Please model this.
Amino acid sequence: MGDPELARFERTHHVAFFDAMAAELPEDYASQEVNHLTLAYFAVGGLSLLRELERVNKDEIAKWVLSFQVHPEANDDVGNGQFFGFCGSRSTQFPLDNVKDPCFNGSHLASTYSALAILKIVGYDLASFDSKALLSSIRKLQQPDGSFMPIHIGAETDLRFVYCAAAICSMLDDWTGMDKLKAQEYIRNCQSYDGGFGMVPGSESHVIHH
Amino acid sequence: MEHSGSGSGPASWPEMADVVPMPQDDGPSPVVPIDYRDDFREVMDYFRALYFARELSARALRLTVEAIELNPGNYTVWHFRRLILEALGSDLLEEMNFVNEIAERNPKNYQIWHHKRWLAEKLGPDIANNELEFTMKTLVIDAKNYHAWSHRQWVIQALGGWEAELQYCNQLLQEDIFNNSAWNQRYLVITRSPLLGGLAVMRDSEVDYTIEAILANPQNESPWRYLKGLYKGDNNLLISDDRISGVCLKVLNNDWSCVFALSLLLDLLRLGLQPSDELKTTIEAVKNYSDPQMADTDLVTAVCSILQKCDPLRVNYWSWYKTTLSS
Model:
């Protein structure tokens, strides 16, 4: 081991890494493709933190992110249980013609969070973003115990998605999509006997949930 | 898009001959593209075609196996598989065996565990034992696998299996008294098992069990946390149980710098514990070891100062804590 005094933050290496990832993700990431937007968020977010955002085309990124948004049909019942947010990847996105079939709407809370975060980072004005359907449908994902399901076709519900929902509401500065009291109750129920927070009520407290 | 039917992919399956694969539409200006391998592309193109056509068939079921192999995290594929299983009236026990094999290779994949839960819900209490055995095997490999614990907790509460769970915790703690996941599970069993009578009934024996664990390994944080947890919401009972302050003093007499003992003592004092002579003497002794120059102060401030010295990792926390003490 070297002298700790000599340890440096290798800034150029990190910038090069994120830049390379933003340009193209190696085939190893194919097994993570459902989280494509999240991977993009890490790459873009990394560059932003390192103040190197000028390396990417911000307008192109915003356009690309927005292309993942799922919009209801003109006369769709936005309260029909589907979530109208962002898909995480093309593999969960199907032609808009068939969006009436809830199976073809792959909107996911984590993808939506990633999408909005990227948009914010690249300077897109979220006030000009059409969030009406998103905010009114996100409420459908909240469960009776206050937790959130990430996708309306069914999935595990836990504290991660309460965070995603809260982040979404916060970024859009609109909390109508969430019953905050119920969410608070769920969060409290996730607190373990040792004071930390688990992912679901009863589970062991874990650093990532604090 | 060329489909060479590279070897064994669906393009070479005779049963897929009439299927037109659906390429991924990457959109006008793809950003952060993924460099897909050809076999990956091929399988997903066929998956897209069948999914879009809503074809709930045996060949679609077989295709999901390929897609899952390549991408076990793709929740759309799992969702499609569930629709097919229901449409075909498939044997769900067989399906559970199938997903268990995949789980063994991907023990921390959310979609797989969710699929197991979906199956277990349908199979009902009869499957409880299988699920308990499977999670137990997973935990042998990785005692902290969060998914396994989560699933196990759900199985016990939804399908049953409380009977042997306390014994299971005993066994795990015998193997490794530092296993915090086992302590956490113990807490669940003690507080929620319909067979044990609840926390108030179990508390007394649990305090003894926990104190024994503390004395065997005072540096083990888990039993200290558990001990306090046994009195959650019942501070009056906590300070009136002599065993609690007792174990702190016993530990400090052997190791004056034990942070867990000092911090629990501090909690007790703040909650109104009337310090015994023994307690005052012990703190006085610890004060002398830790900082002989320390000015004379009240007991609580003294313990705080001692912690600032003995717990340097959290010195800022203890400094802040001191500021909350009323003068």
Q: What stands out?
A: Residues 161-232 of chain B form one domain.
